Amino acid sequence: MSLLICKDASFAYEGHTVISDLNFSVNSGDYLCIVGENGSGKSTLIKGLLRLKVPQRGSILMDEGLKSNEIGYLPQQTIVQKDFPASVYEVILSGRLSKMGIRPFYSKLDKTIAEENLVLLGIEHLRNKCYRELSGGQQQRVLLARALCATQKLLILDEPVAGLDPIVTQDLYKQIFKINREMGIAIIMVSHDVHSAVKYADLILHLKGQQIFFGKTSDYVKSSVGYGFLGGE
Amino acid sequence: MVNILIQMFSYPFLVRAVIVGLLVSLCAALLGVSLVLKRYSMIGDGLSHVGFGTLAIATAMNVAPLTISIPVCVMAAFLLLRISENSKIKGDAAIAIISTSSLAIGVVAISMTTGMNTDVCNYLFGSILSMSHADVKLSVTLSILVLGMFILLYNKVFAVTFDENFAKATGIKTDIYNMLIAFLTAITIVLGMRMMGALLISSLIIFPALTSMRFCKQFKTVTICSAIISIICFFLGVVGSYVYATPTGASVVIVNIGAFVLFWFGNLVRMKVNGVKSINGIEKRGIK
């Protein structure tokens, strides 16, 4: 069952096309990595998928069962967050916000789900810690738990391992892989780390101003695009 | 001490000033937490200068100050917000231009009408005599509005402050909340400006939030503490200014500085005792 179908979509800033001719689809339970160099349009596409940017041409269709408030999103960290005084629990609970509508306060269900995700990511001992005092890897886990509070279907991650050391990076990749396999949540991840991308993802979307590859990871490794980008290994 | 308070509150104008001041400091502290964390502190400062300009023009045109100040400041707040969000224009430079322009316009307007007299001094540094009955009513209404908004929208304000992109992606209309915060900030500033002074009012927004961030680790406690700190500091400032016959606005700011230094130092001592090396984790990790 398709969660999301991108049909001939193009995105532009002030009439200047950044990325064009996108044709791909993501089924439920898929793990898709979007790779490409800086400025290849990855972040723009993410904005499009999150409905923050309207396509210039073409369309992005969501499956009927997927509403825009059912997408979990792990954005890149901002400077604001680096010294933000908030407890881990407060941050994770805020992931339930999209389900609240006009209801002003969190329900018992919201709190239960937040607690469950704390346990799932193994950060229950950090529950009352201040977000700004955590290490980079712990912060990403907190934001991942928040994203999980918002979704049961699709998780969109924008360079989740940026700035993390190699060990923490591998841990986080494994955690994301586990979420994908065990909970059946589809993953769309933007990544600079193409080697890890081919290691974990089922599908690869390679961008360079337009779509230059979309397909199974095994095909990508054999293709000329993938061969070149992987450094000819 | 009790005698001083009884003596103080026998003056009706002082009672009015204290009521308005306490309510304005409460609102400013609540709004300030969000503004400081979003790096919008300068908006408060810019708005107070715009307020000065409008106040001067209103006096020159001989109309009630609030009828001009409130709409102009609200418009300026939306403008400043737009500028800060637009990364193409350098936000801080634009705010500096707007605040100095309004200051200049205000000074020229005053000198062309009444001349540079004590009025200017009152506008810039505040006067405790300036609170009317209408101001009391307006500030009560405003503080109910701000308090109500804060309680009902607390979780959304948190989300919009902590991570605007995430909030936007999950379908929250962040622009509306930003505009609401800017709108309420503009009104708070206009109300508090004549008592605290155009040059000093933004301290009510910035100091309590910064002070409570020294020792609070949760957004909820930061918000509550800055409201309490702000109210206590204002009250001590007013009493101090009465006892020592110093200008009210400046006295309140000095008490706020005192509180900030106290908590900063207290936190430093606590860190030393606990053996933690950094204050807020930035130094610990380095900015990536």
In brief:
By secondary structure, chain A is an alpha/beta fold. Chain A has helices spanning 42-49, 79-82, 88-93, 108-120, 136-150, 166-183, 194-200, 217-222, 224-229; strands spanning 2-13, 16-27, 31-35, 57-62, 71-74, 154-158, 186-190, 203-207, 211-216.
Structural commentary:
- The complex is a heterodimer of chains A (233) and B (288).
- Helix content of chain A is 36%, strand content 26%.
- Chain A has helices at 42-49, 79-82, 88-93, 108-120, 136-150, 166-183, 194-200, 217-222, 224-229, and strands at 2-13, 16-27, 31-35, 57-62, 71-74, 154-158, 186-190, 203-207, 211-216.
- In chain A, strand 1 (2-13) and strand 2 (16-27) form a beta hairpin.
- Chain A starts with a strand and ends with a helix.
- Chain B has 288 residues and is mostly helical.
- Chain B has one domain (2-287): ABC transporter involved in vitamin B12 uptake, BtuC (Orthogonal Bundle).
- Chain B has helices at residues 2-8, 12-37, 41-61, 65-85, 91-113, 118-125, 133-152, 154-162, 164-169, 174-196, 202-215, 219-244, 248-274, 282-285.
- The longest helix of chain B has 27 residues, at 248-274.
- Chain B starts with a helix and ends with a helix.
- Residues 278-288 of chain B have low confidence and may be disordered.
- The chains are: A alpha/beta (233), B mainly alpha (288).
- The A-B interface holds A 50-52, 68-69, 71, 73, 75, 78-87, 90-91, 93-95, 97-98, 100, 104-106, 128-130, 132-136, 146-147, 150, 156, 162-163 and B 37-39, 151-156, 158-159, 161-163, 165-172, 213, 216-220, 222, 280-282, 284-285, 287-288.
Element-level helix/strand string of chain B: HHHHHHHHHHHHHH
Helix amount of chain B? over 70%
| Helix proportion range of chain A | 25-40%
CATH architecture descriptor text of chain B? Orthogonal Bundle
Q: What's the tally of helices of chain B?
A: 14
